[in-house]
# Entry
Amino acid sequence: MKLAWKNRANFKNDNEKRPLWYYFEYIQNPHIEIQLIFATIAFEIIQEITLKEIELDDGIDSEMVKLASLKSKILKLIKASDISDQIKNPFLTNIGNFSSKKSVEGIRRYLFERKFLHDIRVEDEVRDRIQFINRLRNTILHRGLVFMPDKNIDMEQILNYSSQLIPGFIEDYLNSKFEIQHFHRVRQKHEDMKGFLYTGKYHGVKWLITI
# Structure
């Protein structure tokens, strides 16, 4: 604890501190769905901070950024409308999946920069698991729901998976800022998350997901 507090100056500005405040909200809230919303917002901020420090392979497409902003406005209008859920929910899903490939590539690059991936080029199975993380992120952020990838998985299982993965990325960021990533428990968590990406196993246990 003393080591972490000594290194608090590694947070260079308010934006770099925001994931820490969201993490506090995450651990204090008793409802797991709300916890995941706080964690996912923090994850978005961490990705933005990380990816701003590097030059992405395909650069930043300003037109896509504008379109993404419009998408957010459209989603809000549709959600607030009196159209029946039966009609608007599939439409919301399609819009929410807009630019999914770009999101997946951003997460892939983030995972590589944070050393969860050995190489920026990944096999199809690893890419599928990155897609799973992206779908978790999308459904929580855009719809306030938890993505259910397989009818054979119950809600308790997917909530467990989600509460390991997304908060794990926040903890990885905070551990690096506080310079405690060399601690055994911290290194083990990092290896567990890498294990999921490469083998589908977390802490040696196979996760039952089908993308």
In short: The mean pLDDT is 79.
